[in-house]
Amino acid sequence: MFDRRLVAASGAIAVATAFAQTPASPQTPAPDGDVPARGVIEDRYGNIGRMKVGEPAPAAKGYSPYAGRKYPTRPLFGDTHLHSTNSGDAFGAGNRFTPEQTYRISRGEEVVSTTGVPFKLARPLDFVVISDHSEGLGLLTQVYEGNPAFASDPTLQRWRTMMRAGGADTVRAMTEIIGAQASNALPDTLKNPKVVGPIMMSVWQQYTATADRYNEPGKFTTIIGYEWTPTPGGDNMHRNVLFRDGKAAADQVLPFSSWNSEDPEKLWEWMAAYEQKTGGRIMAIPHNANLSNGRMFEPKTVSGAPLTRDYAQRRTRWEPVHELVQAKGASESHPLMAPNDEFIGYGIAGWDLGNLTLTGSPLTKEMMPTTYVREGLKRGLEHQVTLGANPFKFGLIGSLDAHNSIASIGADNFFGKMPSQEPSPDRWEQASAVAGGAAGNRRYTWQYLSAGYAAVWATENTREAIFEAMMRREVYATSGSRMTLRFFGGWDYAPADARSRHLAEAGYTKGVPMGGELAKAPAGKAPTFLVAALKDPQGANLDRIQIIKGWVDASGKAQEKIYDVAWAGHRKPGKDGKLPPVGDTVDLATATWTNTIGAPELATVWKDPDFKPSQNAFYYARVIEIPTPRWTLYDQVRFGVKMSKDVPLKQQERAWSSPIWYTPG
Predict the structure, then answer these.
(1) What is the DSSP string of 503-562?
(2) Where are the domains of the chain?
(3) Longest C-alpha distance within the chain, in Å?
(4) Which residue from 284, 386, 640, 660 lies 20 to 30 Å from 184 (Cα-Cα)?
(5) What is the pTM of this model?
(6) In terms of Cα–Cα distance, which of 433, 359, 438 is closest to 89?
């Protein structure tokens, strides 16, 4: 299976293994004209060692502007939400790619997909988390292969027959399995810890060993993790759990699952116990608030108790980052919550019909204030006032949530979420979910997004540095673009800072980066923000930069406002305050576009004109690209099909920074 599926040379793994096992050799003198840099020893195997180089001369200490620089200088782009064959729903849908194969795909090797379509990433990922579901980790592979431990259960045997039949039967099996998980109706045998515990621990330890083997600090980072998947009544309350540590620490525990508890507080208790036992570090990342039917940002706990200061502090401690966008839509906000936001329609269609499984009640306007991320940030400000702590203070990232082992982020190379959604002439019109309680509602493949990336301002490409960047919330989300986004907040930024070659130096020196906090305002001052964006080298020009502000008014209610702060061209806001559209170069006949409009980079310093020092507030930047083809347009052109009028064929890719918060003294 391995050699048939991976197109890259079969010797690649053997070579990598040989290098990993080769002991460091003595230093070989460099030939004339090829002298190693002073202070670094490099041997022929690429190993690097440091040596003392002495103290610099006093007169030379301040010469290099880069010597001693501590802050991150480039964003890393990765996916914290990718599934292999070890996830039950992925296996049931036909995915047979192991974690090892999934890593090889993620670092850029070519593959033949589950449905027989060749695939290769346009650019390798910098880092990845294979986040297989902890519920039944690897168990469906055992059911499929006929493990005697499951032979006596008729439901498991029926699923085995359906999965082995392939095609539509496999899809039906997957639908049943997801439904059984959501309704807590999985067969008892599959949840018996005496039966499945040793099997899942073996799968976990094999996975962690593979993660360590493929981890290449400085080049390609494999972060150990998994997905905790509570879906009470079909409401999405999922979290991805990420470890800072390697196999030695991670192997000391069996991943906590929703079979243990569907209460996030129980997950946090397990995480605290892990850190105490191992001395390691761990975090959780919620996702798909848009499918929670109002449960993600409720003013009460899962047990029904009102939120407390202690709860708020623990949630912020264990959940520093939130996944804003992925294949299953964008969770930023909704047109009913933000009617003045002209860009908020992105990633809404189909995903606002109801919860993950389209069971129970449809999503209502009353649920939305505790469903969407921007609303959650606003509720957090309100809790800050009443509790003295903010439970919803988190950074923002994107990821894909692909269940076919292919992190196909990007419109021109999208291979769907599930194997059944891989490229084909009719995939766009396939129904992925059909409502029960909300009669007639359906979700279709065309409503999925080719999104997104987790962009991380880490000081180096290592597990430790990426984890620490997430903990300090110096991260941002993109819908699939690899644009560069800087966002700083302080009290003394000047227009010249936005024009400087050393913009980041000014940003870190005078204020805090995205994810940071501003305290009591100096007398007579309003916060200033230094924001800059650079287009993806392979992508589209930029339309504009916006800053979204949320604050709590005198009555204790949260408000919001959107400011256009930098834009391409010579446009001017109209009488309604709105900036005219940037234009559109998309050719629907060829699925092409040009960078003849927009700007390759935008930067500015903006001061809040409506600041009141007594009001709690947050600010985040949103960068909008010029219009480009959506993945549906690429399909329409490549397959020669005509999609219905309700299918969007264009989009404006975007990025969202983590917020910066202001809290009065």
Answers:
(1) HHHHHHHHEEETT-EE-SPPTT---EEEEEEE--TTSPPEEEEEEEEEEE-TTS-EEEEE
(2) 2-54, 76-463, 483-662
(3) 81
(4) 284
(5) 0.90
(6) 433
